[in-house]
Amino acid sequence: MSLAAVATDMSLGARAHRVAMVAAEFADRVDQEGRFPREAVEAMKAERLLGIQIPSAFGGEGATTQEIAEVCSILGQACAASAMVFAMHQIKVSSLVEHGTESAWHKDFMRELAARQLLVASATTEAGIGGNMRNSICAIEIDGDICRLTKDATVISYGTHADAIMVTSRSHEKAASGDQVMTVFRKGQYTLQKTVDWDTLGMRGTCSDGFLFKGEAPAVQVFPKPFAEIAAQSMLATSHLLWSAVWYGIAADAVLRAQAFVRAAARKANGAQPPGAVRLAEASNLLQLLKANILSGLKVYADAKADPDQLSSMAFSIAMNNVKLASSETILTIINQAMIICGIMGYKNGTPYSLGRHLRDAHSAQLMISNDRILGNTSTMLLVQKPDTSLLG
Amino acid sequence: MNETIRELLTRVGGLPVAVSELEDGADLYAAGLSSFASVQLMLAIEEAFDIEFPDNLLNRKSFASISAIEETVSRILKAREAA
Predict the structure, then answer these.
(1) Which residue in chain A has the smallest CA separation from B57?
(2) What is the ipTM of this complex?
(3) What domains can be seen in chain B, in order of their start residue?
(4) How far apart are CA A195 and CA A154, in angstroms?
(5) Mind listing the pLDDT tens digit for each residue in A219-269?
(6) What distance in Å separates residue A125's CA from the closest CA in chain B?
(7) How far is B58 from chain A (nearest CA, A)?
C-alpha cells in the first residue's frame, strides 16, 4: 500500500496504526521523563479513537470489545503507557455504554464524548480500603439537585489530563462499605490536590498520581445503577480483557525485536543455526498461547453479554480472572526469553533490540489488581463453583 | 427454612447489622455481605439442606436477599423431589 493510501485508510486498524506511529516516536521520552503521552493521546483524538465504543445512535461507532482490544494491542506494541491510557479510558466508557442508556444526562454525555473526544479517567481506589475497589470509605452527599464528594484517591491515572473522572463512593452517609455508586464529574466540577507522586519502575507515562478529589455536580450525574452491578457486568470483563490486550502488545513487540535479532545473526552465520533461535521458537509458542487465552476470554464475554445472569455468575468471574492471571504472568516469561535472545543488546537502552522498557512496563501487570487478590477471590469461588471442563464452552 | 437461613446468615454472614432487623427482601450486598461471606453462606446452606447449588444458580441474584435464597433452595429441593 502506498503512503497516501495508508494516510487515507479510515478503517479502525489503519487509524490505530497511525496513532501507534506517533506513540512509538515518543515512547522512550514518555518513559524517561515519566510524563503523559500527550502526542499519542492527541493523535487518538485526531483519529477519533476515544469515542469508538459509543453506539452510533449517540454519535460513536459502536465498536465491539474485540475491536477495541485490537486497538489496545496495536498501541501496546508501540507505547505501553499510551495503550494503557486508551484501555483505561475505554473501560470507563464501557460503564457509560452498558449502564448509562437509561439516564438522559449520561446519554447526553455520551454524545458529547463522541463529538468532542473527551478523555475519561477513573477514581476507584482510596486510602484505607486496602486496594479493594469494591469498598469505599467516602460517601456521596446528595443535597437536593446537587451531589458533593470528597475522596482521598491514592491513584487517579492521568487525572490532571482528563476531561472527566468517574468516582466511586458509598451511596449515602450510612451505607455499608460495599454499597457503592459511581458518579461522573466533569472538568470544572472538581479540584485535584496532588498527594502522591507516580515515580515508578514502569508504565511511567500513565501519570497515576494520587489526589485529594473534591467535587460538586448535579445529582443526575450519579449512575442510576449500583456500582456492584457496573463492576460485575462491565468493568471486570473489560478491565481484564483490555489490559490483557495491551500486555499482549508489549510481549508481541518483544518477540518481534528478538526475531529481528536472530535474523540478523542468521544472516551472518553462513547457514549455522544462530544462538537464540530455539528460544525464539519457544517465545513464539508462548505468544500464541497468550493470544489464544485473550481471544477465548473475548469470546466468553461476547457470548455472556446478552445475559445479565451469566455476566454476574461465578463461572464468568473465574473465566475473566483466569484471563488476567495468565496474561500478566505469561508476558513476563516471554519478554524475559526475548531479553536472553537479544543479550546485552536487549539489556541496553537505545538499541533496536532494547527491551528494558518492555520488561519494566510488563511488571505492572501482576500488580494492577494484585494477582494474589485475584487468586484469593477465585479460590473462594472454587469452594462452590465446579470448574468448566468442556472444550468448546 | 427462613429461620435456618437467618441462623446461618448470622453465623457466617459477618454483617454489620443484626440479621433479625433485615426484611426478607432486603438487599444483602447493600447490607454488607462480602463475596467471601456469600460463599461461606452457600457452603453452610449446602451443608444444612444437604443440597448442591448447580452452576447456573451461582450468581449474585440467587443470593441477593433472604427471600431470593429461599426461592433458590426451594427450587433445588423441588427439582430433587421431581427427579
Answers:
(1) A313
(2) 0.79
(3) 2-82 (1.10.1200.10)
(4) 8
(5) 999 999 999 889 988 899 999 999 999 999 999 999 999 999 999 999 888
(6) 18
(7) 6
